[in-house]
């Protein structure tokens, strides 16, 4: 079976599909990843073959309007404004599709796929599948506040182009794969076919500090991982505040993933705070009792896979939904406004509750068990083989 994977030009949109790509390769299928130059380094890092289509997209340029005069996105615009933009994602990525679709179709016809797998916003994939006769499988990232609305918007925006290509209405995917545990998924989201989330946050070496003594020889360890984008978008002052508050908590070592370029701005920190280079979270979360993060899909799902309570400090886009669902499940806490994120007392209270309320740990472990019980990517491959042969549509 020849499988074409297609991703929007954002590396973190691509990485959730990597475990499925590995499972397909292990089952003997050929996998080719098509995307713009932005995702090709991530494709190579995952050990997969790729083909670059079009020019670089530079998604960071589109996010620049959420950063104003040294403020974080949530300080510049309240949650409601970010979510209103999220609700228009289908329109924005439909414009992207119009520019790239022809090149993707040409690439796909040369490859001859039996199956197409795409992320929720790569709308060219539905047209590629329809024109090549290959079923299209949409792979969600995690908690999904956008794909239903975005697909409906794409159906309207791309209808004329679809008709011009002889397809009639804009096509629907044959299957939607959902790695999010059902009890964590956003209520009202169209049900998908479950696939177990396998943590993949890029490749890297096991840090030497993982197995070493903890700073101050304290009994507990908490990871703080806000992501490179959060720190680049004026998040360093927030991280500095957090590390001083969390570092004052007795008997806790705080592990903060921080790129070297941001460390000088953090200044002198408490002795129980350890700054480490960014590394795949799955290499060290097994040594932690909790995680503090920005609500990115990969970080949320990886923390859930390890059964850890989570404190979420979302900044924009779907991060709010991830924080909401973790809190609603009882597996953690979300501080979803700038005032609470900037208030040392609110941070201290949330951090203390995260570590002392046994209900959070219990709920986190329940989510972990639910995730573990979901079908592995290797099991899902068998269903995809049948789908490609037209024998049956997985339920």
Q: Mind explaining what this structure looks like?
A:
The chain is α/β, with parallel strands linked by helices and 395 residues long. It contains 18 helices and 13 strands. The strands form two sheets. A seven-stranded parallel beta sheet has the order 3-2-1-4-5-6-7, with helices on both faces. β11 (290-293), α13 (297-305) and β12 form a beta-alpha-beta unit. The mean pLDDT is 94.
Q: Strands, helices and their partners?
A:
Blueprint: E1 2-6, H1 11-14, H2 18-26, E2 30-35, H3 40-45, E3 49-52, H4 59-63, H5 73-76, H6 79-86, H7 89-111, E4 115-118, H8 124-132, E5 136-139, H9 147-157, H10 159-164, E6 175-178, E7 193-194, E8 220-225, H11 227-247, E9 252-257, H12 260-266, E10 273-276, E11 290-293, H13 297-305, E12 310-312, H14 319-328, E13 332-334, H15 338-342, H16 344-356, H17 358-372, H18 377-389
Parallel strand pairs: 1-2, 1-4, 2-3, 4-5, 5-6, 6-7, 8-9, 8-11, 9-10, 11-12, 12-13
Offer a few descriptive terms:
single chain; seven-stranded parallel beta sheet; 18 helices; globular
| Gyration radius, rounded | 21 Å
- Major sheet: arrangement of strands: 3-2-1-4-5-6-7
Roughly how much helix do the residues carry, as a percent range? 40-55%
- Helical segment count: 18
Mean pLDDT figure? 94
User: Span between N and C termini?
Assistant: 21 Å
Described by strand count, sense and barrel closure, the largest sheet is: 7 strands, parallel
Shape: globular
Tell how many strands the DSSP assignment holds.
Answer: 13
In the predicted model, the low-confidence regions spanning at least 5 consecutive residues are none
Give the DSSP E fraction (strand runs of 2 or more residues): 5-15%
The assigned structural class equals alpha/beta
């Amino acid at each position: 079976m020849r499988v074409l994977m297609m991703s929007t030009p954002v590396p973190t949109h691509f990485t959730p599909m990597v475990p499925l790509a590995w499972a397909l390769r292990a089952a003997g299928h050929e996998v080719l990843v098509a995307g713009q130059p932005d995702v090709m380094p991530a494709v190579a890092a995952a050990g997969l073959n790729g083909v670059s289509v079009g020019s670089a997209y530079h998604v960071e340029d589109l996010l620049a309007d959420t950063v104003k005069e040294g403020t974080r996105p949530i300080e510049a615009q309240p949650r409601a404004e970010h979510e209103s933009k999220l609700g228009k994602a289908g329109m924005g990525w439909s414009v992207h599709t119009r520019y790239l679709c022809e090149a993707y179709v040409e690439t796909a016809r040369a490859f001859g796929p039996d199956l197409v797998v795409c992320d929720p916003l790569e709308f060219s994939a539905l047209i590629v599948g329809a024109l090549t006769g290959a079923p299209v499988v949409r792979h969600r990232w995690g908690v999904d506040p956008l794909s239903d609305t975005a697909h409906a918007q794409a159906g309207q925006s791309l209808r004329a182009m679809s008709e011009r290509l002889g397809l009639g209405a804009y096509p629907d995917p044959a299957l939607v794969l959902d790695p999010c545990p059902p009890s964590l998924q956003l209520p009202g989201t169209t049900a998908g076919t479950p696939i177990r989330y396998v943590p993949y946050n890029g490749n890297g070496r096991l840090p030497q500090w993982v197995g070493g003594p903890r700073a101050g020889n304290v009994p507990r360890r908490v990871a703080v991982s806000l992501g490179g984008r959060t720190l680049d978008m004026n998040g360093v002052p927030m991280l500095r505040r957090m590390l001083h508050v969390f570092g004052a908590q007795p008997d806790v070592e705080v592990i903060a993933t921080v790129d070297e370029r941001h460390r000088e701005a953090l200044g002198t920190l408490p002795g129980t705070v350890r700054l480490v280079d960014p590394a795949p979270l799955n290499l060290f979360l097994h040594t932690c009792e909790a995680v503090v993060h920005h609500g990115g899909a990969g970080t949320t799902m990886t923390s859930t896979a390890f059964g850890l309570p989570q404190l979420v400090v979302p900044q924009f886009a779907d991060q709010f939904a991830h924080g909401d669902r973790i809190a609603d499940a009882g597996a953690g806490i979300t501080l979803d406004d700038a005032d609470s994120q900037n208030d040392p007392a609110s941070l201290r209270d949330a951090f203390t509750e995260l570590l002392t309320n046994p209900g959070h740990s219990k709920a986190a472990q329940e989510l972990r068990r639910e995730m573990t019980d979901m079908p592995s990517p290797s099991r899902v491959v068998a269903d995809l083989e049948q789908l490609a042969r037209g024998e049956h549509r997985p339920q």
